[in-house]
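I am writing to request your help with a piece of structural work I have in hand. I set the record out below, with my sincere thanks for your time.
___
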Amino acid sequence: MGEELDDSASFRQEVADRGALAQADQEFHEITWSELKKTIADNDLASLERRPSDIARYNLWTSQIRTAYGSITNFICQCRLDWKPLETPRSDKGPTFACNDPTPFADPEDYTILINDWPYGFTPDVTHLVVWLKTPVPTDPQTGDLTESSRDLINAFVTKTFTQELSREGCGGDRVQWFKNWAQLQSVKGIEHVHILVRDVSREIVAKWVAGRCEQH
């Protein structure tokens, strides 16, 4: 999913997309689990790319969605999350939503887990999910990156919701990673979200997390 990026991030993404589109899908190097882990550990999130054919389809899709809904944020609110924003937005930070608890992840009614409609080019064993939140997760105002307390908050949620659930299903081991794009890389700036990556997880388990909602594109 995508939305307007700031000028520098938009330019970098455009250059990366042009390079990827010059490839055929057969030439594209799929991102392995070990490479993903290193990318997250190095905070090199800008290096994550989609397959060339997905970029072409994504660009067409975003153009059509903006024409139909005015913005990708509007589409996500109306068609994917069924959330109605409050009339007064957070200035230039996008829509605000009524919530049961202002603490992120504290109330299940204040977040929704979906399969990413437009995942990065991972190997087939990796499933890309997104946790959408009604409540903002605090970030460093200087860097746009997460604060340590925010990382602890997300880690606790990921452990409880994904890692422990997989252990109960007999699927322990190295199966869950997460990241949150820092501000300049966020394609959907208007709604808070965290990326979740799971490896070798059955469709049945994924369906429980997303409550049966599938991709839309």
